[in-house]
């Protein structure tokens, strides 16, 4: 059973002052819950250890996919395969941040991987800043969280330069390289998230600039902002699979830019391998005895309750929960039905006293660095609520 603490929510005006404008859902309900999930120190440490172990498995699985040319199995668009290979070969293509969605971890339930949001994960602003602000506004010790997301990502930006060395060497090695940050104009959440990441990189010591995606110029010589300044790094809050499908000319140009070493793109193209839910079928094949993995296959599982979901999809769209007798219990609609499907053994999310279900999410930046929760029903969609946590 999930236990929570009630708290005084931050008012909308204050939220907007700190840049959090998406505080109210389309039905008029508040997106941020007025409670905190209670988590013990031991449970937080278990989330940390599990997420680090799962990431290591993903690295091994990606190498396996590349070596065995399994891109089609994962639904990877053909026009990004060479880009993925190139970004995987060279350590300078550094994975900045990601988020694991899990089940369990509280009240004695085993931690299980649900999926990996490796390329453009949401809830960064909420996890890194908002749940800290909630504790502070309720006169609680803001250190009583598993949450060093801001510091961890800032340090991970430094590793673009130092790689596996100590980040204390950053100032010695840094030579003025610049990062251009981009999101699509008209989406407040994505713009605020991108600018938060920009601030993290600025804090790390980089020269940075923000430019809406549609204003960025790409050619064979590199990536430029509207002032025609060339940038060595480009961060885009725009999914790689959308670039491949919706912007094929851009995909070709970015491939050439990476092949010719004219710029480094963040998150790297290889995170599309991690992003594919098909990778969980590969993980289960390689690590069937892992305590963190649910049975997952590219074919429907026989005689068990399971979840069908597209290899690429967001916010629970195009997801089915199927009973052991093949009856569809519940499903959601969405734009991702044309993608290949995977089938994952069903597991219950932990519940509170009212029956609401909670899915823990753990951010990863070189290591696990922060916990938060989403609250909702059987399938957590875009109407699920953000819930912070407190260590007890």
UniProtKB/TrEMBL annotation:
- GO molecular function terms here? ATP binding; ligase activity; metal ion binding
Task: Look up the signal peptide feature and give its range.
Answer: none
What range(s) does the Glutathionylspermidine synthase pre-ATP-grasp-like domain occupy? 12-390
Coiled-coil region list: none
Q: Which Pfam families match?
A: GSP_synth
Write down the superkingdom of origin: Bacteria
Give the record's keywords alphabetically: ATP-binding, Ligase, Magnesium, Metal-binding, Nucleotide-binding
Protein name in UniProt? Glutathionylspermidine synthase
Give the species this sequence originates from.
Sulfurimonas autotrophica (strain ATCC BAA-671 / DSM 16294 / JCM 11897 / OK10)
């Amino acid at each position: 059973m999930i236990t929570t603490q009630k708290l005084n929510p931050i008012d909308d005006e204050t939220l907007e002052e700190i840049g959090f404008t998406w505080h109210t859902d389309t039905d008029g309900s508040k997106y941020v819950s007025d409670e905190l999930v209670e988590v013990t120190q031991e449970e937080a440490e278990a989330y940390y250890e599990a997420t680090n172990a799962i990431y290591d498995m993903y690295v091994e699985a990606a190498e396996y996919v590349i070596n065995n040319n399994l891109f089609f199995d994962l639904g990877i668009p053909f026009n990004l395969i060479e880009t993925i290979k190139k970004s995987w070969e060279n350590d300078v293509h550094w994975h900045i941040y990601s988020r694991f969605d899990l089940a369990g971890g509280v009240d004695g339930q085993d931690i299980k991987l649900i999926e990996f949001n490796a390329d453009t994960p949401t809830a960064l602003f909420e996890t890194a800043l908002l749940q800290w602000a909630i504790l502070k506004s309720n006169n609680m010790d803001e250190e009583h969280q598993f949450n060093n997301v801001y510091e961890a990502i800032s340090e991970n930006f430094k590793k673009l330069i130092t790689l596996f060395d100590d980040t204390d060497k950053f100032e010695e090695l840094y030579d003025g390289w610049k990062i251009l940050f981009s999101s699509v104009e008209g989406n407040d959440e994505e713009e605020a998230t991108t600018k938060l990441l920009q601030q993290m990189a600025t804090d790390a010591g980089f020269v940075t600039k923000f430019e809406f995606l549609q204003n960025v110029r790409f050619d064979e010589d590199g990536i430029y902002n509207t002032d025609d300044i060339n940038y060595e790094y480009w961060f885009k809050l725009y999914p790689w699979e959308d670039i491949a499908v919706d912007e094929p000319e851009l995909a070709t140009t970015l491939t050439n830019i990476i092949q010719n070493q004219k710029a480094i793109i963040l998150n790297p193209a290889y995170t599309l391998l991690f992003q594919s839910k098909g990778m969980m079928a590969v993980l289960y094949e390689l690590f069937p005895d892992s305590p963190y993995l649910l049975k997952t296959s590219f074919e429907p599982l026989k005689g068990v309750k399971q979840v069908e979901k597209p290899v690429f999809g967001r916010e629970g769209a195009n997801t089915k929960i199927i009973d052991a007798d093949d009856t569809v219990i519940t499903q959601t609609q969405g734009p991702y039905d044309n993608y290949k499907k995977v089938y994952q053994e069903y597991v219950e999310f932990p519940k509170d006293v009212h029956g609401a279900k909670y899915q823990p999410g753990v951010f990863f930046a070189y290591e696990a660095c922060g916990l938060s929760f989403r609250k909702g029903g059987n399938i957590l969609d875009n109407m699920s609520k953000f819930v912070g946590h407190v260590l007890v």
